[in-house]
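Late entry, written up from scratch paper. The run itself happened at the end of the previous shift, but nothing got recorded in the book at the time, so transcribing now.
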Amino acid sequence: MKTKIIYITCIFLFSGLYTQAQLLDELKKRAEEKGLETKEVSFDTTDNETHRTTSYEVEELVLNTPQDFYNKDVVMLGYNEKGGLTQTSYFDSETVAMRTELVEDPSKLPIFHDDKGKMYAYSEDDGQYAAMNLLPPALMGFMVGGMTVSTYKLPQEPYYEALEALEKVGSGLNFMIMELAFIYKSRHFENDTNYTVQKISCGGSDCIRFNYTHPDYLGSYMQFDAQGKLREFNLIIAYTEENSNDTKTSTGKFLFSYKPVTVKLPDAVEQSMIPGPLGKIFDLEKGLEPWKHNEKDEQKKKDNNN
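Output as recorded:
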């Protein structure tokens, strides 16, 4: 079971779901060719406006609970480059958890994610779910944050503002593409030269579509409804394969709707991402900044003794 679970985890962590994996595979090749694979995305969290790159008015994101951020139920449909539905993801704002059903293989039981960075995958060999820490919230942001905003050419600051605020309440951005529905608003794309604005009719009302201007992303867009909710995220990526001059495209599309959803995390056995004794030595829950957790543990002890 360990081998299978670790393999599945790596797929979800570094590639996302099926449609996202196709796009990332091609973009990673292009990044390697251009020497961009290890480039770090910088983000200035200071209040010095001269260092900010946003074209919108920044509002401080203050959260008391994860539910303050994850404040609506969402259904997300993922399509491949041929327009075929590959997955349906359901997000429950009350439990702050997501269930993903793989449409292409309905015999497979759903995969679950929670806001603590855990993925729940079913092992047919053992006949039960295993829960594994993909990465703690802080480490997840460190590993995936830069890849997400750079891969999909998204405004950086909203992503990192959300990541920082969620970390303070013990949560994180651990739902792959789904979290984009909570992070981004139409104002993040307005007056941004990386996008052009287009008003379109959708579902009997007006929607705003922000089309990418980057030459490698032509045809890609983010679309919001009249209430400012993300409705579509479409990507058409042009790339050139190694040792070839032929330009190809990779396409993926995500549709978002907002309706009541119930997600119950399954009973599962805990599984370390690092197999064997090392899994007990290296505590992934504490991530790259274990001192923060140690400080919190000490404070809890003091509070309990008072």
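The radius of gyration is 20 Å.
(Scratch paper discarded after transcription.)
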